[in-house]
Amino acid sequence: MAKSPKRLLVVEDNAHDARFVTRALSQTDDTLYIVHVTHADEAVARLEHEHFDYVLLDIKMPGIDGMELLQRIRSNEGTSVVPVIVLTSSTNPSDVLRSYKAGANAYSAKPSSLSGYRQFAEAFVRFWIENTLPPGGTMLHQ
Fold it and tell me: Which residues form the Response regulatory domain (predicted)?
């Protein structure tokens, strides 16, 4: 039985990090449909009009930061249950705690190498895509 394609929104302002993670994820699961945006306001616009099964979120971004975006996602009925995985450069315990309190489903430090991004992608696909059932279709305006 063929698995249905999953949709992932990657919210990452650093072009290199975005390229590394999206490439690693695409190579690990070629059925994963990935949309990359660089700012939280772009993410809000996409979430208002499109269904995503997962959000991969950097919390350290200019303007509306990832933490505020996470709070918006969780406070909206249409996206409140979408799995949000924080992937960020911060290993500060207060950022980790704030993220979980705001509703993150997982928190991971950005890898420091290409092989680290591959390992992250393999773990992401193995857990989130192959071993969990995401909630049904979700959009911000529902």
Answer: 7-125
